[in-house]
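CORE FACILITY INTAKE
Project code: CF-77B
Contact: R.S. (postdoc)
Sample description: multi-component assembly, two entities in total
Requested service: structural model of the whole complex
Turnaround: standard
Below are the sequence entries exactly as provided by the requester. Do not edit them.
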Amino acid sequence: MGSAGSGKFGTYRIGGNTIIGGVGGSGEVECPTLIENIRLEDVATSEYYTKYHNLPGLQSRIQLRDRTYTGRLVIETVDTQEVVGNLPTQYNYLLNCIQKGLKYTGLVISSGGSPIPFVVVTLNA
Amino acid sequence: MHERTILIIGEICIDTHLDIIDINGPLVRLGGIFHSARACSALGVKYALAYYAPDYLEDDINHFSCILKTRGCYQLGKVNNAPNVMLINESKEVGDQGYYNIIKDQAKFVETGDIKRIIDTVKPTDVLICPGRYDTNKVIRDLYGFDGRIHIDFHYDSEGILNNSATKISTIIISTSSLLFREQCNGKFEDVLSYFQFHTIDYLLVKENRGGAYCYSYSENKIYESPAYYVPTMHSVGVGDVYNSIFVSDYFETELEKKMRFSSLCAARYAETMSFEKFEENVQLTVKNIEELIKLNGVRLSWEDRNNKNIYIAAPDFPNVETGSLEKLADCLKYHNFVVRLPIRENGLVKASMTFEEELIIYQKDIELIDACDMLIAVLLFNDPGTLVELGMFKQSGKPTIIFDPYNLCDNMFVKHTPNFICKTIGEVIDATYQCLQRR
């Protein structure tokens, strides 16, 4: 009769059908190709809003700047490279992806002024 | 070019991740001081290992230490009668990780090496000691007269290791996860300082898990702080060891805050993968872009600050409801030193037999509790109207809200768009909590 058990050291492979259980949930995350519904931070004090007192409309083209700006990753317009807002710090790890050569562009999927100016974007690598 | 050579002393065990299932079952890899070895190797830091391990691991230790480009790998002692296999129930440290060392109490540590001889051979500039169940006190006493720097991680098995020792210690490293910090030092910096008051130390580093770290420089009488950097975490096992070995290396020798930020960035890189190759690639990228990365805002929320953060848990916490996931969430938040407020348990449960006035008193107390809290987590065990009303009321205060939705119930437009975060796992809730409550 056989027994169950782990085979040997050094068998782990990224994307190799590894299952993560317990309370922790998700497993190893590579640079994502799609990030949906990111609500930007500090929109009201951003370069774009302070200059135009307005926000980029639906479907406006935006991109993730390829370097930090005052300690943050920022989203800027594709056309004028003006900062629309800060990316929440939970996405700071994307800087590593940018440095690997990925470029993130996307669209404004929602924006408005009430109760405070807000912009929601989707990014694609 | 790195000038320092670090000798890392400690146990080697087999980490068995019961919650990460690979093609062969639970993921296994060499743990203990091998986590520090991976960090040194990935960054090109010169290092050697002096270890305690069972004989049966010797071939694997030699094989993998060669792969990790060690300058020497010396057996300091054997572990007999126990396999040194660590079962890890929860790899991400969402809460208590539930480490289980198989038949650890029958382990016998037999010295086979001589630390002085190893020092003479390796000629390290620094010694990093990871205490274990071996005679750490003797190793420290034997290092008396060593003319380099000695750094000690007081995470495990550190009781009495400095007794009767005149050996000078450069760095004391302590983690908020350790029993020494939580119990003997009551989770307070002043008590940590008191604990080590009779020793001559250069630096006291306190690592505060996902909330950053601080380091007290005795010579300057100054505290340096640095944030933690969030990454999608795959595991937390050995992440502190990675931090330690980079902190004691010669990276940013004279810039303490920068050194701490760099150590934290590399530790985060270790937490996001189980692949050494990917870790190595990512830390090399970190080194290459360090001036850019170091400017990044991270998460700073000290252990003591967390104890002032009241979190209102809105949930159908009723006697007839299965509240297992609510209990687990509360335990995990407490593990991270947040203050959990459960309104029904604090203010009482409304019963059918109660009068209108009695019910109103409980309602008013719950409203006062909402006002007093810094954040709300709504736990959707089912679509309970009370939970959703509390969420809406809290949102209007402008304070952060999180929905924990373990059963995928969240499909209503208002519910979906109200919170700052919608989380499916407790791990995500803990990460989101740090994001919401971090210092601004």
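Facility notes:
- Chain B touches chain A through 57 residues (CB under 8 Å).
- The longest strand of chain B covers residues 14-22.
Invoice: internal transfer
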